[in-house]
Description:
By secondary structure, the protein is α+β, with helices and mostly antiparallel strands. The chain folds into two domains: 1-30 and 86-111 and 226-261, no CATH class; 43-84 and 123-222, no CATH class. The chain is built from twelve helices and six strands. It has helices spanning 2-15, 46-59, 67-80, 90-103, 113-116, 124-137, 174-177, 179-182, 186-189, 199-206, 224-239, 242-259; strands at 82-83, 121-122, 142-147, 150-157, 160-164, 214-218. A four-stranded antiparallel beta sheet has the order 5-4-3-6, covered by helices on one side. Strands 1-2 form a two-stranded parallel ribbon. The two termini are 32 Å apart.
Amino acid sequence: MKTNALLVFLTLILFVPNFLNRDINHNETFNHKERYIPELHAIKSINELEKIIDGITDEKGIKQTDPEYLLYVSYIISYRFFHGFSHWNLCQNWIAAVGEKISGIGLACKVQPDAIMKDDNAGCSQQALVMMEIFRRKKINYRKLGFPHHYTLLAQANGKWYFLDPDMEPVMTLQQREFSSWKGVAGNIKPFYLNKSTKAEVDAHLGGDTQLATIGPINEVPAKNLRLFQNITERLSKILFIIPLLVWYYRIKKTIIIDNPEASFSGYRLFPA
């Protein structure tokens, strides 16, 4: 009886989170310093974002091969999100959500661009993932760019690589964004961040003045393992409760058969009346 009660309890524990629309991991709020415009929350997918970007750049006569196109991609994404990691909540993927809560590792941080688009907030790496998806569709070369506590990217136009950061929003001209002008040295771009961040905040994200950025391969698709984990656990979260439920059902059925042997033979009376 205790085992059956435990199985029912376990079934409920695995089943109920699928109805809880709650993010149990750390959330940040809008600091009112970023470019974020709440009304742009209506843009809910990469397809919609792509149409908005292309509509604006077409109207301004900017070609997708122009470096200005890269800037508009970054600018519009910076208006779409405020800083703060977007997570899978309990009803979407409770295994990933609980896994991050217990381990402190970013298991519930979304890495699928369309999933990120469903939220108002996105971390630096998540905004970079959205940019990468746009560039991938436009066949624009990009490379991820990493600092000790910050993640962004370079994108290529007319044979030059340009620095883009929609999350921390540095104020830079196109020439200043050229990789050849700052050579991957953190100290060379730190002054451009001081319009919205303190020097201490910039140092904490980018590292020391001599810190060199880590540059990834051209057109790499990052976080493949985490994406696979989230895709699997998203499905498991919806069906895992079935296992203890089936065990409970089997035990109940077995108990009925033991207590009433005739119940195991449908329609056949093997015992005298």
